[in-house]
Design goal:
The complex is a heterodimer of chains A (408) and B (616).
Chain A: E1 9-10, E2 30-36, H1 64-81, E3 89-96, H2 104-118, E4 120-130, H3 137-146, E5 150-156, H4 160-166, H5 174-184, E6 188-195, H6 202-214, E7 219-224, H7 232-238, H8 247-263, E8 267-270, E9 273-275, H9 283-289, E10 293-297, E11 302-305, E12 308-312, H10 316-325, E13 330-335, H11 338-349, E14 356-357, H12 363-374, H13 380-384, E15 387-388, H14 392-396, H15 398-405
Parallel strand pairs in A: 2-3, 2-10, 3-4, 4-5, 5-6, 6-7
Antiparallel strand pairs in A: 1-13, 7-9, 8-9, 11-12, 12-13, 14-15
Helix pairs in contact in A: 1-2, 1-10, 2-3, 6-8
Chain B: E1 19-26, H1 32-42, H2 55-64, E2 73-80, E3 83-90, H3 99-107, E4 111-117, H4 124-135, E5 139-145, H5 154-165, E6 173-174, H6 183-193, E7 206-215, E8 219-228, E9 236-239, E10 245-247, E11 250-254, E12 258-260, E13 269-273, E14 287-290, E15 309-315, H7 321-334, E16 339-345, E17 349-356, H8 359-373, E18 377-379, E19 386-390, E20 395-398, E21 409-424, H9 428-437, E22 441-448, E23 452-460, H10 461-465, H11 468-475, E24 481-492, E25 494-501, E26 504-505, E27 511-514, H12 515-532, E28 540-546, E29 549-556, H13 572-587, E30 589-592, E31 595-598, H14 599-607, H15 609-615
Parallel strand pairs in B: 1-3, 1-4, 4-5, 5-6
Antiparallel strand pairs in B: 2-3, 7-8, 7-14, 8-13, 9-10, 9-14, 11-12, 11-13, 15-17, 15-18, 16-17, 19-20, 19-21, 21-23, 21-24, 22-23, 25-26, 25-27, 25-28, 28-29, 30-31
Helix pairs in contact in B: 12-14
The structure holds guanosine-5'-diphosphate, S-adenosylmethionine, iron/sulfur cluster and magnesium ion.
InterPro entries (chain A): Aldolase_TIM (IPR013785), Coproporphyrinogen-III_oxidase (IPR034505), Elp3/MiaA/NifB-like_rSAM (IPR006638), HemW-like (IPR004559), rSAM (IPR007197), rSAM_sf (IPR058240)
GO molecular function (chain A): 4 iron, 4 sulfur cluster binding; coproporphyrinogen oxidase activity; metal ion binding
Subcellular location (chain A): Cytoplasm
Chain lengths: 408, 616
C-alpha cells in the first residue's frame, strides 16, 4: 500500500498558514501539483498514493475533478488570507496515480481552475504523467488545446520480461507511437525508465536505453527500482520468489545510462533526470530541489510554502469528505526552523547539476568538501570555482555526501 | 504428614551430638531445589500453606532485589524416636568455577547427599563436586531422584553410583522430590549416617566463613560454621586473615527466614551481621575468632581466589561507563573473587578488564550486570594468563593480548587444566577429535556404567575458553558435560594475532593463539568481519597479522550506490526523516580509523554469531 504520511503537527481546519510562510514569498516561484489517485491496476513495486476501483470505498472517479478544482479555489483563498503574495503559477504538474485515467476534459477542467484562480506566468510549464496505454492521439490533442505543454510517459522498460516483473500492462510497441503523437500535437515529451529490476541484465537495460533514445524524447528520467516496504514486490523478495535488486548492478546501469544519454546529447541536471537542453528540463521537478513554493492538490499531496510543509489526508474518500464540508484537506504539517531548512537546502541542492554554492555552507561543511573531492564524489574543477557539483560516482553516493556535508 | 519435631533444638544450646550438617551435590536440574522444598515442608519449617515451589531459590531472587537474606544454610528440626536433631542443609555453588567456594561449603559439612536424576545419570560437574566432598572426608549418601518419571532407570543408575563410590546398589536411596516419596527415609538416613560435628566448646572460638553475601539493607551477611568455642551477640570478633575487628550486631540461624539467636555453639551453622558493607572484609575461607580470647591458629584452607579467565567488559553506550563502574563496585561487595580495572579499547571505547574464576563466573557476572543493572555490554573474547619471557630475560604477565610484548620472545607459558568430559560412549570419537584439535592430551578414559564414558584430558585453558564448550555441546547433541580444574602451566609456541581494518589494529580482536592455529584464527576473523562490516564509501582491507607479517586478508568492496534515485513527488519530509535516521544510525557506529563499524558487528564477531547461524 501507499507509504504512510509523515508525523507532524495538526493542520488547522481553515488551512491558514503561519505568518512566517508569507515572508519573501514574492521572490519565490510558485507551482501547482495536482494528484490523481487512480490506477487501473497497481504495479507490484509502486507505493504511490493511488487506488484501483476496488479500493475506492464508494468514491466515484467522475467526482474527482470537481473536488480538485474546489481545492484549487481553496488554495487561492488560503494564500490570500495568509498574506502570501499572489503569484501566477510558473509550473503545473499532474501526477499520480494515472492522471490520464480521467477523461481529458476532466484534466482540462482542473487546469482551467488553476488558470482562473492563480493565472499562468509567461511560458508556464504544464505537464501530465501518462501511461502509454491510457492515451491516444485525440486525448493528447485535447490536452494540448487545454494548455498542457509537456507529457511524461511511464515507459519503464522496453524489455517484455522486465515489464512483466514490474507488472506493467502496456505493450512496449506502443511507446514510440504515443511519443510520436505527443510531438505531433506539439507537446514536449519525457519518458520514465526504471533500472535494476530483478532479472534485468545490463544488456536488457541497454536495450531499454536504446529504445528510449530512439523515440527522441526531450527529456528522460531514469529511476533505480526502490523496493518500498509494504509493496507486493517487497513481499515477493522476502519470500524469495523474486531476487533482491543488486545495488552494484544498479550502479553499473546508472553509469551506462549516464554515458549513453550524454553521448546522445542529453545532459544530466538532477541525479535521475536528463534533458536535451536547458529549456527542456522539468522546471516543476527542479522546483522541488530548489526550495520553491508549490501547492499540492488532492489526497496525500504535499505542499511547501515558505518553510511550511503540509500534506493532505490520504484516502480519496477522506479527501472527498473534507472537500464536501468545505474544510481544508490538510492532515498535518511542519514548520521548518532555520537548521532544518539549511539541512534540506543541502539535501536537495546537491542533487542538481547547478550545484550548491560552497560559500553558503557552514565551515564544517566546507571542510568536508575536501574529503569528498579526494574520494572522487565532488567535481574538483567546479569546487575550485566555488560550486559543489557531484561527479558521476558522487551522484550515486548523493545521500552519503549529504550526510558528510551535514555531519556536525 | 510427617514426624515433625515436637520441639526444636535451641541454637547456641544444642549438643553437637544432635546436629547434622550436610549439603546436596547435584547437577543442575537434577532436582535439588525441589527436594529442598519437600524437606522444608516435611520438617515443618515452612508450612504447607506458605509453601511455594523452589522456595529457597525464590528467596535468592528476593535477596538480589535487596529484600531478604539468602538462605545459604537452612536449619531444620527432625525427630527420631525421642530425640530431636537440628539438620543444617548448606547450599553449595553449582559449578567448579567456584570450586574454592564449593570446597569451603563442603568443609562446613560432615556429609553430602549425592542427588542424581534417575533418568539421566551422573554428570561431569557432579563428579568434580563429589571428588571434592571425598577430599573433605564427607559421608556420602547416594540418592536417585525423580523415580516417579516413566523414563527413570534406577537400577541402571544405582549400579553406576555404587560402582563409583563403592557400596551396594541396594543402599542407593530412591526418592521423588516431586511426590515426596522416600524423602522421610532420606532425612532419617541423614541422621543415621552423617557423623555429628566435633569441636572443643572450651577452646578459643574458631568459626569458618563459608559464604559471605552483600545485602543492601543489612550490609554483609557472613555465613559461618562453628568449629570451636562459641559466639554471642554484641561480642567483638576478629577476622584472622586481615585482623580486622567488628562488633556482632546480630547472630542467628536461617530457618529458612533469618531468626536471631542467643548465639552459636560448636558444630552449629548460622549467620553473622556486623554492619560491614564490603565482602572483602569477610572473606570466604577466613576464620572468625573473638577479640577477647583470640585463637592462635586459623583453620586451614584459606586462599585468595585467583582469577583464571579475563575479559574486557564495555558498555555498548559509551555514556554508561560510569554506571558500569558503579555496578562492578557493587557486585564486588558481594563477590570477592571479581577483579577489574579500567581499560580502553580503540574499537570499544572505555571499559574494564575483568578477572573471573572461570567461564561460568564470567557469564553470571555479565548476566547480572545486564539484568540487575540494566547495562548493555560487549564482552571481548575471554583470555587466560600468559607468562611471556622476552629475549632480554624479562617476564611479562599477560592477561590481555594487548600486553603481549612486541620484541623477540623466548618462551610463553600458559595455564593447563585437567578436563573431565562425560558423554554417551557413541560420542567418544568425535570428542577425542575435538580435544586433539584443541591440543588436549588424553589422561584416561573410564566407563561409567555400560554406555557412558568419562574422558580425562589435560588441555590448555586458553583452548577451553575459546568456545570449546559450544563445540562440545553441538557435536554431542548437548549430551556431553564438561568440567575442569587447574593443573599448572606449560610452555607452548604461542603468538599474538592482530586484526587490522584498513591498516588500523582492532584491539578487541587480537588473540594469543598457538602458532599452528594462527592462520585459522586469522582466516576466521577476517571472514567474519567481512560478512559483518557493511560496505563503506571506500574499499576496506581486513588483515590478520603476526607482528608485521600478514597471514590472512580479505577486503570489503567499496559501496557504489547510496542514493534514493526515485521520483519523489513533493514528499521532502519523508526524505529528510530518512536522512535523519541514517545520521542517528551513524552515531551508534564505532569508528576504527575511517571505517564505520556497527556495534552489532563487534558483538557478532566476538561471539561468533556468523558461523553459528549457518551451522544450525
Ligand atoms: N518428575 C519429577 N520431576 C522433578 C522431580 N524433582 C524435580 N523435578 C523437576 O525437574 C526440574 C528441575 O528441578 P529443580 O528442583 O529446579 O532442579 P535443580 O536445578 O537441581 O534445583 C523441575 O522441572 C522440577 O519440577 C521429581 O522427583 N520428579
Ligand atoms: C508517480 S509514478 C507513476 C506515473 C505513471 N502512473 C506510471 O506508472 O507510468 C512516476 C514514476 O515513478 C517511478 N517509480 C514508481 N515507483 C517506483 C519505485 N518503487 N522505484 C523506482 N521508481 C519508481 C516510475 O518510473 C514512474 O513512472
Ligand atoms: S501505474 Fe504508475 S502510479 Fe499506478 S500503480 Fe503503476 S507505477 Fe504506480
Ligand atoms: Mg535449583
Amino acid at each position: 500500500m501507499a507509504g504512510a504520511l509523515p508525523l507532524g503537527d495538526p493542520a488547522p481546519a481553515d488551512g491558514l498558514l503561519p505568518v512566517s510562510a508569507a515572508a519573501g514569498s514574492g521572490d519565490r516561484p510558485f507551482g501547482m501539483y495536482l494528484h490523481v489517485p487512480f490506477c487501473r491496476v497497481r504495479c507490484g513495486y509502486c507505493d504511490f498514493n493511488t487506488y484501483t476501483s476496488d479500493e475506492l470505498r464508494g468514491v466515484k472517479r467522475t467526482d474527482y475533478a470537481g473536488q480538485a478544482a474546489d481545492e484549487v479555489r481553496l488554495s487561492a483563498h488560503v494564500l490570500r488570507e495568509s498574506g502570501v503574495a499572489p503569484r501566477p503559477v510558473s509550473t503545473v504538474f499532474f501526477g499520480g496515480g494515472t492522471p490520464t485515467l480521467l477523461p481529458a476534459a476532466d484534466l482540462a477542467m482542473m487546469l482551467a481552475a488553476v488558470r482562473d484562480e492563480h493565472g499562468f506566468a509567461p511560458g508556464a510549464e504544464v505537464t501530465t504523467e501518462a501511461n502509454p496505454d491510457s492515451v491516444d492521439r485525440d486525448y493528447l490533442a485535447t490536452l494540448k488545446e487545454a494548455g498542457f505543454t509537456r507529457v511524461s510517459f511511464g515507459m519503464q522498460s522496453a524489455v517484455p520480461h522486465v515489464l512483466a516483473t514490474l507488472e506493467r500492462t502496456h505493450d512496449p510497441e506502443r511507446v514510440p507511437l504515443v511519443v510520436a503523437w505527443a510531438r505531433e500535437v506539439g507537446l514536449q515529451v519525457s519518458v520514465d525508465l526504471i533500472y535494476g529490476t530483478p532479472g534485468e541484465t545490463l544488456a536488457d537495460w541497454e536495450r531499454s536505453i536504446d529504445q528510449a533514445l530512439a523515440t527522441r524524447p526531450d527529456h528522460i528520467s531514469a529511476y533505480s527500482l526502490i523496493v518500498e516496504p509494504g509493496t507486493k514486490l517487497a513481499r515477493q523478495i522476502r519470500s524469495g520468489q523474486v531476487a533482491e535488486p543488486d545495488e552494484d548492478l544498479q550502479a553499473d546501469m546508472y553509469d551506462l545510462a549516464d554515458e549513453r544519454f550524454q553521448d546522445a546529447g542529453y545532459g544530466w541536471y538532477e541525479v535521475s533526470n536528463w534533458s536535451t537542453g536547458h529549456d527542456t528540463r522539468s522546471r516543476h521537478n527542479l522546483s522541488y530541489w530548489t526550495g520553491a513554493d508549490w501547492w499540492g492538490i488532492g489526497p496525500g499531496a504535499h505542499s511547501h510554502v515558505g518553510g511550511v510543509r503540509w500534506w493532505n489526508v490520504k484516502h480519496p474518500a477522506a479527501y472527498a469528505g473534507r472537500m464536501a464540508e468545505g474544510a481544508s484537506p490538510a492532515a498535518g504539517r511542519e514548520t521548518l526552523d532555520s537548521d532544518v531548512q539549511e539541512m534540506e537546502r543541502i539535501m536537495l541542492g546537491v542533487r542538481i547539476a547547478d550545484g550548491l554554492d560552497i560559500r553558503s555552507l557552514a565551515p564544517e561543511g566546507r571542510v568536508a568538501v575536501a574529503g569528498l573531492i579526494a574520494d572522487g564524489f565532488v567535481d574538483a574543477a567546479a569546487a575550485l570555482r566555488g560550486h559543489l557539483v557531484l561527479t558521476r560516482p558522487g551522484r550515486l553516493m548523493a545521500d552519503a555526501v549529504v550526510r558528510r556535508l551535514t555531519d556536525y | 504428614m510427617s514426624p515433625k519435631a515436637l520441639r526444636a533444638q535451641e541454637p547456641s544450646a544444642t549438643d553437637p551430638a544432635f546436629i547434622r550438617n550436610f549439603c546436596i551435590i547435584a547437577h543442575i536440574d537434577h532436582g535439588k531445589s525441589t527436594l529442598a522444598d519437600r524437606m522444608l515442608q516435611m520438617t515443618g519449617v515452612v508450612s504447607d500453606r506458605d509453601m511455594r515451589a523452589q522456595y529457597l531459590d525464590r528467596m535468592d531472587i528476593e535477596r538480589e532485589r535487596g529484600i531478604t537474606i539468602k538462605s545459604q544454610a537452612v536449619r531444620m528440626p527432625w525427630s527420631q524416636g525421642a530425640d530431636t536433631f537440628a539438620l543444617n542443609m548448606i547450599d553449595t555453588p553449582g559449578h567448579v568455577d567456584f570450586s574454592y567456594e564449593v570446597s569451603r561449603s563442603l568443609a562446613a559439612c560432615e556429609g553430602a547427599i549425592l542427588l542424581v536424576d534417575a533418568a539421566q545419570g551422573i554428570e561431569a560437574q557432579t563428579l568434580a563436586n563429589l571428588y571434592l566432598a571425598l577430599e573433605n572426608d564427607l559421608e556420602i549418601i547416594p540418592v536417585l531422584n525423580k523415580i516417579d518419571l516413566p523414563a527413570a532407570d534406577p537400577d541402571k543408575y544405582a549400579a553406576e553410583l555404587a560402582s563409583l563410590i563403592g557400596g551396594d546398589p541396594a543402599d542407593v536411596l530412591r526418592v521423588s522430590g516431586k511426590t515426596g516419596m522416600g524423602v522421610e527415609d532420606l532425612l532419617d538416613r541423614v541422621v543415621e549416617r552423617i557423623p555429628a560435628p566435633k569441636g572443643d566448646a572450651n577452646a578459643p572460638t574458631r568459626a569458618m566463613i563459608f559464604d559471605s553475601v552483600y545485602d543492601s539493607y543489612r550490609g554483609v551477611v557472613t555465613y559461618v560454621r562453628m568449629i570451636d568455642g562459641s559466639l554471642s551477640p554484641r561480642e567483638r570478633i576478629q577476622m584472622m586473615s586481615t585482623r580486622s575487628t567488628h562488633e556482632l550486631l546480630e547472630i542467628g540461624v536461617s530457618s529458612p527466614e533469618p531468626i536471631p539467636s542467643k548465639g552459636l555453639g560448636v558444630g552449629e551453622v548460622g549467620y553473622l551481621i556486623t554492619g560491614v558493607k564490603d565482602v572483602r572484609l569477610s572473606k570466604v575461607g577466613d576464620t572468625v575468632t573473638t577479640l577477647k580470647s583470640p585463637a592462635t591458629d586459623a583453620l586451614p584452607g584459606y586462599t585468595d581466589p585467583k582469577p583464571m579467565v579475563f575479559s574486557g567488559l564495555y558498555p555498548i553506550d559509551g555514556g554508561d561507563y560510569p554506571d558500569l563502574r558503579e555496578a562492578l563496585d557493587k557486585l564486588k561487595l558481594s563477590d570477592a573473587s571479581l577483579n577489574y580495572e579500567p581499560e580502553t579499547s580503540v574499537a570499544l571505547g572505555f571499559g574494564f578488564r575483568c578477572g573471573f574464576l572461570g567461564l561460568l563466573h564470567l557469564e553470571i557476572i555479565t548476566e547480572r550486570l545486564e539484568r540487575e543493572f540494566g547495562l548493555d555490554l560487549i564482552t571481548t573474547a575471554p583470555s587466560v594468563i600468559y607468562e611471556v619471557r622476552t629475549e632480554d630475560k624479562k617476564t611479562v604477565t599477560v592477561t590481555n593480548p594487548s600486553e603481549f610484548p612486541t620484541g623477540k620472545i623466548q618462551a610463553v607459558s600458559e595455564p593447563v587444566v585437567r578436563a573431565a568430559i562425560l558423554a554417551p560412549k557413541d560420542y567418544v570419537g568425535t570428542i577425542m577429535e575435538l580435544c586433539q584439535s584443541r591440543r588436549g592430551t588424553l589422561l584416561g578414559m573410564e566407563y561409567l556404567g555400560e554406555d557412558r564414558v568419562e574422558l580425562r584430558y589435560s588441555m590448555p585453558l586458553g583452548e577451553i575458553v575459546f568456545d570449546f564448550f559450544d563445540h562440545l555441546k553441538s557435536r554431542t547433541q548437548g549430551y556431553a558435560s564438561l568440567d575442569y580444574e587447574p593443573m599448572g602451566e606449560q610452555e607452548a609456541d604461542l603468538v599474538k594475532v592482530d586484526i587490522l581494518l584498513q591498516g588500523e589494529q582492532v584491539d578487541a580482536f587480537s588473540a594469543i593463539v598457538h602458532r599452528e592455529k594462527a592462520y585459522a584464527y586469522g582466516v576466521l576473523m577476517t571472514e567474519r568481519l567481512k560478512k559483518l562490516i557493511p560496505r563503506q564509501q571506500f574499499e576496506v582491507p581486513i588483515q590478520a597479522a603476526i607482528g608485521a607479517r600478514i597471514i590472512a586478508r580479505e577486503s570489503i568492496r567499496a559501496m557504489r550506490k547510496d542514493v534514493l534515485a526515485k521520483c519523489y513527488g513533493g514528499d521532502i519530509t519523508r526524505k529528510r526523516k530518512l536522512l535523519e535516521k541514517q545520521k542517528e544510525g551513524k552515531k551508534r557506529m564505532k569508528m576504527v580509523g575511517k571505517v564505520e563499524v556497527p556495534q552489532e558487528a563487534f558483538i557478532a564477531a566476538l561471539s561468533g554469531d556468523t558461523e553459528g547461524k549457518e551451522k544450525k
